[in-house]
Specification:
Elements (H helix, E strand, L loop, with lengths): L2 H17 L8 E5 L1 H18 L5 E7 L3 H8 L6 E9 L12 E4 L9 E9 L3 H11 L5 E9 L12 E5 L5 E2 L15 E4 L3
Parallel strand pairs: 2-3, 2-5, 5-6, 6-7
Antiparallel strand pairs: 1-9, 3-4, 8-9
Helix pairs in contact: 2-3
Length: about 200
Protein backbone atom coordinates (compact mmCIF):
# COMPACT_ATOMS: atom_id res chain seq x y z
CA UNK A 1 0.00 0.00 0.00
CA UNK A 2 1.11 3.54 -0.76
CA UNK A 3 2.49 5.00 2.53
CA UNK A 4 0.71 8.30 1.93
CA UNK A 5 -2.67 6.58 1.48
CA UNK A 6 -2.04 4.49 4.61
CA UNK A 7 -1.29 7.64 6.64
CA UNK A 8 -4.48 9.32 5.41
CA UNK A 9 -6.61 6.26 6.28
CA UNK A 10 -5.03 5.98 9.72
CA UNK A 11 -5.60 9.68 10.39
CA UNK A 12 -9.22 9.41 9.20
CA UNK A 13 -10.03 6.46 11.48
CA UNK A 14 -8.31 8.02 14.51
CA UNK A 15 -10.16 11.30 13.98
CA UNK A 16 -13.54 9.60 13.56
CA UNK A 17 -12.97 7.26 16.51
CA UNK A 18 -12.42 10.29 18.73
CA UNK A 19 -15.66 11.86 17.48
CA UNK A 20 -17.78 8.74 18.12
CA UNK A 21 -20.39 9.45 20.82
CA UNK A 22 -20.25 6.98 23.66
CA UNK A 23 -23.28 4.78 24.32
CA UNK A 24 -25.47 6.29 27.01
CA UNK A 25 -26.05 3.50 29.50
CA UNK A 26 -29.55 3.35 30.97
CA UNK A 27 -30.29 2.84 34.63
CA UNK A 28 -30.57 -0.93 34.79
CA UNK A 29 -30.27 -4.03 36.97
CA UNK A 30 -28.67 -7.26 35.78
CA UNK A 31 -31.20 -10.09 35.58
CA UNK A 32 -29.53 -12.83 33.51
CA UNK A 33 -25.77 -13.02 32.94
CA UNK A 34 -24.01 -13.86 29.69
CA UNK A 35 -22.80 -17.14 31.21
CA UNK A 36 -26.30 -18.18 32.26
CA UNK A 37 -27.71 -17.32 28.84
CA UNK A 38 -25.06 -19.37 27.03
CA UNK A 39 -25.58 -22.35 29.32
CA UNK A 40 -29.35 -22.31 28.93
CA UNK A 41 -29.13 -21.94 25.15
CA UNK A 42 -26.92 -25.05 25.02
CA UNK A 43 -29.47 -26.96 27.12
CA UNK A 44 -32.36 -25.87 24.90
CA UNK A 45 -30.42 -26.83 21.78
CA UNK A 46 -29.81 -30.32 23.15
CA UNK A 47 -33.49 -30.79 24.08
CA UNK A 48 -34.71 -29.55 20.70
CA UNK A 49 -32.17 -31.77 18.92
CA UNK A 50 -33.60 -34.78 20.75
CA UNK A 51 -37.24 -33.82 20.21
CA UNK A 52 -36.93 -33.10 16.50
CA UNK A 53 -34.74 -36.02 15.45
CA UNK A 54 -35.96 -37.22 12.04
CA UNK A 55 -38.19 -34.18 11.55
CA UNK A 56 -38.45 -31.71 8.69
CA UNK A 57 -37.57 -28.76 10.91
CA UNK A 58 -38.15 -25.14 9.95
CA UNK A 59 -37.14 -22.58 12.57
CA UNK A 60 -38.96 -19.26 12.28
CA UNK A 61 -37.60 -16.29 14.20
CA UNK A 62 -39.89 -13.46 15.28
CA UNK A 63 -38.17 -10.19 14.39
CA UNK A 64 -36.70 -8.05 15.62
CA UNK A 65 -36.16 -9.32 19.13
CA UNK A 66 -35.38 -13.00 18.51
CA UNK A 67 -32.51 -12.60 16.05
CA UNK A 68 -29.64 -12.88 18.57
CA UNK A 69 -31.22 -15.71 20.55
CA UNK A 70 -32.12 -17.59 17.37
CA UNK A 71 -28.61 -17.23 15.92
CA UNK A 72 -27.13 -18.79 19.05
CA UNK A 73 -29.86 -21.41 19.40
CA UNK A 74 -29.69 -22.88 15.89
CA UNK A 75 -25.94 -23.44 16.30
CA UNK A 76 -26.77 -25.67 19.26
CA UNK A 77 -29.40 -27.68 17.33
CA UNK A 78 -27.46 -30.59 15.82
CA UNK A 79 -29.91 -31.33 13.02
CA UNK A 80 -30.52 -30.40 9.42
CA UNK A 81 -32.88 -27.45 9.49
CA UNK A 82 -33.98 -24.42 7.56
CA UNK A 83 -34.63 -20.93 8.87
CA UNK A 84 -36.95 -18.08 8.04
CA UNK A 85 -38.19 -14.95 9.75
CA UNK A 86 -41.46 -13.19 10.34
CA UNK A 87 -41.82 -9.67 11.65
CA UNK A 88 -44.62 -8.90 14.03
CA UNK A 89 -44.96 -6.16 16.62
CA UNK A 90 -47.25 -5.20 19.47
CA UNK A 91 -45.06 -2.63 21.26
CA UNK A 92 -43.98 -0.15 18.60
CA UNK A 93 -42.11 2.68 20.29
CA UNK A 94 -43.87 2.18 23.62
CA UNK A 95 -42.84 0.18 26.67
CA UNK A 96 -46.26 -1.45 26.94
CA UNK A 97 -48.06 -3.62 24.43
CA UNK A 98 -50.71 -1.74 22.50
CA UNK A 99 -52.64 -4.98 21.98
CA UNK A 100 -52.67 -4.46 18.21
CA UNK A 101 -50.63 -7.07 16.32
CA UNK A 102 -49.00 -5.93 13.08
CA UNK A 103 -47.31 -8.24 10.56
CA UNK A 104 -44.76 -6.39 8.44
CA UNK A 105 -42.70 -9.31 7.07
CA UNK A 106 -44.05 -12.71 6.14
CA UNK A 107 -42.23 -16.03 6.02
CA UNK A 108 -40.89 -16.76 2.55
CA UNK A 109 -40.54 -20.55 2.69
CA UNK A 110 -43.41 -22.96 2.22
CA UNK A 111 -44.41 -24.24 5.66
CA UNK A 112 -46.96 -26.85 4.56
CA UNK A 113 -46.20 -30.25 6.19
CA UNK A 114 -43.16 -28.81 7.99
CA UNK A 115 -42.39 -29.05 11.70
CA UNK A 116 -42.34 -25.40 12.72
CA UNK A 117 -40.43 -24.07 15.70
CA UNK A 118 -41.22 -20.42 16.40
CA UNK A 119 -38.42 -18.63 18.25
CA UNK A 120 -39.46 -15.61 20.33
CA UNK A 121 -37.43 -13.32 22.55
CA UNK A 122 -40.14 -12.78 25.14
CA UNK A 123 -43.75 -13.85 25.70
CA UNK A 124 -45.50 -11.22 27.75
CA UNK A 125 -49.22 -10.68 27.15
CA UNK A 126 -49.34 -13.76 24.93
CA UNK A 127 -51.15 -11.87 22.17
CA UNK A 128 -48.28 -11.94 19.69
CA UNK A 129 -47.50 -15.65 19.96
CA UNK A 130 -51.21 -16.58 19.89
CA UNK A 131 -51.63 -14.54 16.70
CA UNK A 132 -48.53 -16.13 15.19
CA UNK A 133 -49.81 -19.64 15.89
CA UNK A 134 -53.17 -18.90 14.28
CA UNK A 135 -51.57 -17.18 11.29
CA UNK A 136 -49.10 -20.00 10.59
CA UNK A 137 -51.53 -22.81 11.40
CA UNK A 138 -53.76 -21.71 8.53
CA UNK A 139 -50.98 -22.87 6.15
CA UNK A 140 -51.17 -26.52 7.22
CA UNK A 141 -47.81 -27.18 8.86
CA UNK A 142 -47.27 -30.63 10.32
CA UNK A 143 -46.71 -29.15 13.79
CA UNK A 144 -46.05 -25.83 15.51
CA UNK A 145 -44.11 -25.40 18.74
CA UNK A 146 -42.70 -22.33 20.43
CA UNK A 147 -39.33 -21.65 22.01
CA UNK A 148 -39.19 -18.44 24.06
CA UNK A 149 -36.10 -17.00 25.66
CA UNK A 150 -38.18 -15.29 28.36
CA UNK A 151 -41.57 -16.24 29.75
CA UNK A 152 -42.95 -13.24 31.64
CA UNK A 153 -46.47 -13.76 32.99
CA UNK A 154 -46.84 -10.39 34.72
CA UNK A 155 -49.32 -9.09 32.12
CA UNK A 156 -50.50 -12.30 30.45
CA UNK A 157 -53.83 -11.78 28.69
CA UNK A 158 -54.03 -14.97 26.62
CA UNK A 159 -53.08 -18.45 27.79
CA UNK A 160 -50.45 -19.90 25.47
CA UNK A 161 -48.40 -23.08 25.43
CA UNK A 162 -44.63 -22.55 25.42
CA UNK A 163 -42.85 -25.79 24.62
CA UNK A 164 -39.33 -24.57 25.38
CA UNK A 165 -38.52 -21.73 27.77
CA UNK A 166 -35.16 -20.21 28.53
CA UNK A 167 -36.01 -18.29 31.68
CA UNK A 168 -39.03 -17.37 33.77
CA UNK A 169 -39.03 -13.70 34.78
CA UNK A 170 -41.75 -12.40 37.05
CA UNK A 171 -41.83 -8.69 36.16
CA UNK A 172 -40.06 -5.64 34.79
CA UNK A 173 -39.23 -4.21 31.39
CA UNK A 174 -36.26 -6.16 30.01
CA UNK A 175 -33.49 -5.09 27.65
CA UNK A 176 -30.42 -6.73 26.13
CA UNK A 177 -29.67 -9.88 24.11
CA UNK A 178 -32.16 -8.78 21.46
CA UNK A 179 -34.69 -7.22 23.84
CA UNK A 180 -35.16 -3.50 23.30
CA UNK A 181 -36.69 -0.31 24.54
CA UNK A 182 -37.75 1.87 21.60
CA UNK A 183 -35.29 -0.03 19.37
CA UNK A 184 -32.34 0.61 21.71
CA UNK A 185 -30.11 -1.69 23.82
CA UNK A 186 -30.61 -4.90 21.80
CA UNK A 187 -26.82 -5.28 21.49
CA UNK A 188 -26.16 -5.75 25.21
CA UNK A 189 -24.78 -9.24 25.86
CA UNK A 190 -26.75 -9.73 29.09
CA UNK A 191 -30.37 -9.20 30.09
CA UNK A 192 -31.27 -6.29 32.34
CA UNK A 193 -34.32 -4.88 34.02
CA UNK A 194 -34.68 -1.31 32.80
CA UNK A 195 -35.16 0.89 35.84
CA UNK A 196 -36.28 3.98 33.93
CA UNK A 197 -37.27 4.41 30.30
Amino acid sequence: MNPEIHRKKTTFFKKNRQQQPSLKMPNRKLIISRKDIAGRVRELGAIITRDYAGSNLLVIGALNGAFIFMADLIREIKLDLRIDFIRVASYGMSTTSCGEIRFSKDVELDIKDKDILIVEDIVDTGLTIASLHKYLNDRDPKSIRTCALINKKERREVEVVLNYVGFEVEEGFLIGYGLDCREQYRQFGEIYHLIDS
